[in-house]
Amino acid sequence: MKAIKCPNCGSEQVKELTEEKYACMACDNVFLIHNHSKEFRKTDEHISSMHQDLKDDISKLMNSNNIDPDAIIEKAEQHLKKKDWIIDWKKEFNFALAHLKVGIPTALQFGILGLSLLIIQSVCNTFGPDVIAAFTAALRIEQMATLPMISFGVALAAYVAQNFGAGNFSRIRFGVKKASLINVILSIVMAFIMHFWGGHLVRIFVGYQNEDIVKIAHDYLFRSSLFYFFLAQIFIYRNALQGLGRAVIPMLAAVGELLMRSFAAIYLAAKIGYFGVFYAGPIAWVAASIVLAAGYYSTIKQFILKTQQKLRKNRRVS
Predict the structure, then answer these.
(1) CA gyration radius for the chain?
(2) Among 56, 189, 236, 252, whose Cα sits 20 to 30 Å from the Cα of 196?
(3) Handedness of CA 105, 107, 112, 117 (dihedral sign)
(4) Burial class of 118 by CB neighbour count within 10 A (0 to 12, 13 to 18, 19+)
């Protein structure tokens, strides 16, 4: 343990008054030293005891093998002294930058989507409490309906990222096609449910005595479910692009969604009433799905061409 010094004069001639209170014999200064209790001053002895206990435990586990516990502990101590477990930000800058290139656009993307929903909600609020209640209940049901499609999209992102790291683009294309097909089937099933049982689901939220609200909410579910196909493809191509490390294109698609939602919520609502608000989401889905699909196919094509060029160069060299 390091000697306790007076913070006033630096002298080591100190007298312990209590467990944390000391007096300097040179300048008569009284000062406090936190975490220097009797238990704390026994830290070295405690560490030594733990060290010996660890050696004993290792010895018991390795009685049948000719392994020296001291050598294992020595290697562990050498590893800790190297401090290679500490992150060196200078060396890891490129690694962190690669994550930021994906993380920042993704954060902006979801921020833009949240802003577009706020605009829609603000316009919806102008049509009275029945429309507000119906729209809110319908959105909750729609969120549950789209959860399976979202789940396949999230799973695809990890799948694409792993195969992208391995350079296996054929598996990426295969996985995207299969996931897209699954989401198409899910979108049809969910649209079927919304068409025929959407009203019953709304009654779970608003009760059986608010038929006007149920009708408005069912109208929204009926119209929006016709466009679930495009929403399903958004989840596929957006996550595929993020798995490929291309987060800028999904962010641009989110900007397109913001513009389309704002146009529908403001312009169409003024022309056809709250039905304009209902079409805001579907119009945005169509626009975003086109941008994302085009971005995915152009990106995967570029990667395949680069890979083929590298293979040709390697063949020429060999």
Answers:
(1) 32
(2) 236
(3) positive
(4) exposed
